[in-house]
Amino acid sequence: MVAAMAGDHSVRGSTLTLREVSHRFNFEGQPLPVLDRISLQVGRGEFVAILGPSGCGKSTLLRLVAGLDTPTAGALLTEGREIEAPDPSRVVVFQDPTLYPWRTVWSNVALGLEARGLLRTHRERIEDALRLVGLTGFANAYPHQLSGGMAQRAALARALVNDPTLLILDEPLGQLDSLTRIAMQTELVSLWQRSSFTALLVTHDVEEALLLAGRVIVLSDRPARIKAEVVNSQPYPRHRGNPHFVKLRREVFEHLGLEDAW
Amino acid sequence: MSSVIDEVPRPSEKSGFGFFESSATRSLIGGLSVAVAWSIVAALTAFWPDKPESDWVYTGGFAIACGALALALALAAFAGVRFVAFQRLQRVAPWLFALGLFLAAWEAVTAKLGLLPLPFFPPPQAIVEVVIDDWGRLAEGIFASARLLATGYFLGAALGFVTGVAIGWSRLAGYWIHPVLRFIGPLPATAWLPLAFFVFPSSFSASIFLIALATGFPVTVLTWSGVACVKSAYYDIARTLGATQRFLVLKVAIPAAMPHVFVGLFMGLGNSFAVLVVAEMLGVKAGLGWYLQWAQGWAAYANMYAALLLMAFLCSGLITLLFRFRDRLLSWQKGLVRW
Ligand SMILES: Nc1ncnc2c1ncn2[C@@H]1O[C@H](COP(=O)(O)OP(=O)(O)OP(=O)(O)O)[C@@H](O)[C@H]1O
Ligand SMILES: [Mg+2]
Is residue A74 part of a domain? Predict the structure, then answer.
């Protein structure tokens, strides 16, 4: 679907550079350091996953990439230019689906096109995106009529409609059952392969990270530092039972300090 | 399975006559009881002579009207056996029944026994008399009140809404308007009455100002709080999708604030009724409020009751209308309060 929007087959994802990015919040009058000198280089069309313990600062990092907040120190660049404000080329799928309750699923998905005045010319994209996430029959439903997983799929559709060059995913499949989840993972990979955007995925699921991403960044506890980087150059589709996959999975668990857990 | 169970009508919970088996039988018996109650009103009015030296012109007419209603209700009850549509009357049957009993008792203690002092407690036919004989002035009053209320309310609601959005959205507007609102807003609009009546060129425009003020304050405050309460995540979403400021205000802040705005509109409507009546009594010399005042001055209590009844119907009707409008506009909300 997105490939059709792209119109050409060259890699069109944007690059992303993080230079010594640190971030601090104020929490009850005390400074709360959340990110500690994160440096990262993401190439055009790369798929990078970020793993880390809960509350370490993953969502904070993604907000900085989206341009919703500015870092306390360091710089974020895309295509060599500093990220200063949100831009529709960098679309976020937030951890919480946050659909607008006063809009139907269809017009929630239409949000980005409407905001940019593209609704009239690109209307058919909405149908495509809804079909992709399996919500065609629910176009006229209101968010309170959806299940948690359906809301999350609607939020995914709302992002995909905009044909981003950098897709930022904050646990986008967190609330899906394992079957839908596997289907959506496959869908995400083929989508990424077809339209070759750059993808940054935060997940709690080690297998998901290794199934989807070419590179897995492991973060430490808060304040988050980059603890390790695991490269997975296996071709797609990947299989969980593959010995190399199992080896990588063990490696990632060790980096997370959970070598005995699995 | 459960849907099948849900579809079985359970009117016993809805109607007061829950002890009969089939819904058709129940509807028939309920309807006939109501018809009997109204027949009693009719018979009591017609055959029990009014207390001597009282001259109620419409005693006979009132009796005939009640009798006709009883007949119609009986026909509807029989129709309910064949046509399901008529069974809907069942829901209001207990109320119609109670109303019949109330009228019968009222008729008995006023016109028939004279237990309540006149002219303070006229019988029902006296109120019928007012509506029939004085309908011209009542209609004039309704028209005058409606014109005043509509103008003031729409003006106040529109200004309040715009002000509320401005305060909620713009820091500068908040800085300048908020203190004024805090200082002047809580003052009852009626306190401005003496001032308004000599500052404004006409009592009509003064009253519009007062009604608009009474409506505007709650609408402003609630619109503002609605806009201030919008989840920041809603803005984040729109901003990452390329929304302009204009889009954020019109398509995010305002729709998200609408439930609050409606609370303000309801409060404003209630306030506007109060101010309308006071303004009409003290300044405008027209409208239902003025009619009330006039009736009281001439000890025409039947006229007063008639005007009060009309006012109750109109105010309640307007609130209902506003509820309908909200239900339509906010159909996306779960668990709306039904009026
Ligand atoms: N606006 C804020 N003000 C103060 N503290 C904040 C704010 N936002 C986040 N934090 C703190 O920053 C830390 C990191 O939060 P963040 O949401 O980035 O975690 P996360 O890695 O995404 O966690 P999870 O995996 O559970 O989603 C947390 O300790 C949180 O309390
Ligand atoms: Mg998070």
Answer: yes
Top residue of B232, B237, B258 to mutate, by most chain A CBs within 10 Å, is B237
Closest chain B CA to residue A140? B332
* Mutation to test the A interface, candidates B231, B232, B236, B241, most A Cβ within 10 Å: B241
Nearest Cα residue to atom 28 of ligand 1? A55
Q: What is the mean pLDDT of residues B153-170?
A: 95
Distance CA A218, CA A228 (A): 5
Domain assignment of residue A96, yes or no: no
Q: Report d(CA A185, CA A153) in Å as an integer.
A: 12
In a domain, A97, yes or no: no
Q: Which ligand 1 atom is nearest residue A57's CA? A: 18
Confidence of residue A35 (pLDDT cuts 50, 70, 90): very high
Residue A119: pLDDT above 80?
yes
Contact state of B241 with A66 under an 8 Å Cβ cutoff: no
Structure token digits, residue B309: 């009844």
Q: Do A115 and B231 touch (CB under 8 A)?
A: no
Give B97 to chain A, closest Cα distance, Å: 41
Residues A131 and A179 in one domain: no
- Residue B237: predicted pLDDT: 94
CATH class entry, domain B135-330? mainly alpha
Q: What is the pLDDT of residues B244-264, one digit of tens each?
A: 999 999 999 999 999 999 999
What total number of domains does chain A contain? 2
Separation CA A251–CA A182 (nearest Å): 22
Residue type, B143: F
Residues A180 and A124 in one domain: no
Q: Does the CB atom of residue A32 touch ligand 1 within 6 A?
A: yes
- A55 and A13 inside one domain: yes
Q: What is the pLDDT of residues A183-229, one digit of tens each?
A: 889 888 988 988 889 999 999 889 899 999 999 999 988 888 998 89
Domain that holds residue A216: 6-89+167-261
A73 and A184 inside one domain: yes
- Please report the pLDDT score of residue A166 as a whole number: 94
pLDDT at A262: 53
DSSP string computed for B49-105: PPPTT---TTHHHHHHHHHHHHHHHHHHHHHHHH-GGGGGGGGGHHHHHHHHHHHHH
By DSSP bridging, strand A73-78 and strand A16-27 are antiparallel
Going from N- to C-terminal start, the domains of chain B cover 18-121, 135-330
Look up residue A69 and give its DSSP letter.
S
pLDDT in tens, A127-153: 999 998 889 999 999 999 898 888 989
Over residues B285-304, the mean pLDDT reads: 90
What token pair was written down for A46?
Answer: 């790369």
Does one domain contain both A202 and A250? yes
Atom index in ligand 1 nearest the CA of residue A27 equals 4
Domain at A218, CATH number: 3.40.50.300
